[in-house]
Amino acid sequence: MHRTVEAELLDSLPPQAPAALRSRRDLGLINSVMGNRAWFRRVLPELTRPGERVLEIGAGDGGLARRLRPEVPHSDGLDLWPRPPDWPRTDRWHQEDVRQFRGWDAYAVVFGNLICHHFPDSTLAGLGAAIRRHARVFAASEPARGRRYQLLFSLLCPLIRAHEVTRHDGRASIAAGFADDELPRIMGFFSAGWTCRARTTPLGAYRLIALRP
Predict the structure, then answer these.
(1) Which DSSP state fits 62?
(2) pLDDT tens digits, one per residue of 78-131
(3) Could you give the C-alpha distances from 53 to 84, 111, 116, 130, 150, in angstroms and in order?
(4) What value, to the nearest 5°, has the Cα angle with vertex 212 and ends 40 and 94?
(5) Phi then psi dihedrals of residue 131, to 5 deg
(6) What is the tens place of the pLDDT at every residue in 145-167?
(7) Angle at 62 between CA 58 and CA 64, to 5 degrees
(8) SS3 of 30, please?
(9) Residue pair 152/12 in contact by the 8 Å Cβ criterion
(10) Domain residue spans in the chain?
């Protein structure tokens, strides 16, 4: 399967639209099945040094960062959506497009969950260049691309009673996902000499940790 990127329906919905709320509920279940939260909970404390600020790109409604607070107490968010009502006052919320963000110099650790697959290769190359200039660590969990993962997703949808938005976006996400060393190569980490660990889990998560040399 060649990587193809298409617009996802959730991105065009207002945050409080019923379909958006239902789809975010589905995404929470999918994240649990994929083990994304548990993975970030395990790796981020090991990667973060005392005093370093952490940034989640594509933070959505802030749900992942909230669940990570015991392990990563100070994590700022970056997303087009407005600042969540319960976002801590001590942490920053950047409501803007990640492609126009200019505050990278404040962050040594950058992570993202199910965000990189939204972008074409050219945008990911620019994002990688911006992160490499300032950050020390980049961690990402993305959809793995492949027919077996499309099949797994199609089997999961009836079990969680997935909304039609979720069904469309899930198929699109997997088609835009990654395999092998694609993501660090596209983002330029290899050419910059970073150490990269990329692996795919049996349940369809593509995991990347990139470390500055």
Answers:
(1) S
(2) 999 899 999 999 999 999 999 999 999 999 999 999 999 999 999 999 999 999
(3) 19, 11, 21, 16, 36
(4) 55
(5) -65, -40
(6) 999 999 999 999 999 999 999 99
(7) 85
(8) helix
(9) no
(10) 9-211
User: If phi over 0 gives left and psi between -120 and 50 gives alpha, with beta otherwise, what is residue 2?
Assistant: beta
Amino acid type, 69: R
The answer for residues whose C-beta is within 8 angstroms of residue 27's C-beta and 6 or more apart is 114, 166
Among 166, 142, 207, 199, which residue's Cα sits nearest to residue 11?
166
Question: What CATH number does domain 9-211 carry, 2.40.50.140, 2.60.40.10, 3.90.1300.10, 3.40.50.150?
Answer: 3.40.50.150
DSSP for residue 116: G
DSSP 125: H
